[in-house]
């Protein structure tokens, strides 16, 4: 069995590239404004542009409005959604995304 590694809180393209070079399987992008590691969709687009195809992009949210999650899913190649607030199972399932 292989251990998969996710590096979360990526805010710069060079950190994404370095993480991939070091063997990360997934990169986490924080879409929670109060976090010092938060990024906008535009910043995230710059970070993930041209990354290798088998790197999973994880979008992290905390009690986000559904339209904010949908905007992220529409604009970015998100592989996994990660929720860290008070989201219910029904809330999470509405996006039909792992």
How would you characterize this protein structure?
With 98 residues, the chain is of the alpha/beta class. The chain has a single domain (6-93), classed as Aldolase class I (TIM Barrel, Alpha-Beta Barrel). The chain is built from four helices and four strands. The chain has helices at residues 13-21, 41-48, 66-75, 89-93; strands at 6-8, 26-30, 56-61, 78-83. A four-stranded parallel beta sheet has the order 1-2-3-4. Helix 2 (41-48) links the parallel strand 2 (26-30) and strand 3.
Task: Kindly identify the CATH topology.
Answer: TIM Barrel
Quaternary structure type: single chain
Beta-strand percent range: 15-25%
Mean pLDDT across the residues is: 97
Topology of this structure?
Layout: E1 6-8, H1 13-21, E2 26-30, H2 41-48, E3 56-61, H3 66-75, E4 78-83, H4 89-93
Parallel strand pairs: 1-2, 2-3, 3-4
């Amino acid at each position: 069995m292989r251990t998969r590694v996710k590096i979360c809180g990526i805010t710069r393209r060079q950190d994404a590239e370095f993480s991939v070079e070091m063997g990360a399987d997934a990169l986490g992008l924080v879409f929670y404004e109060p976090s010092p590691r938060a990024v906008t969709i535009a910043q995230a687009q710059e970070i993930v542009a041209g990354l290798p195809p088998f790197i999973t992009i994880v979008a992290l949210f905390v009690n986000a409005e559904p339209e904010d999650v949908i905007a992220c899913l529409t604009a970015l190649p998100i592989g996994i959604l990660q929720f860290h607030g008070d989201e219910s199972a029904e809330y999470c399932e509405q996006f039909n995304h792992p």
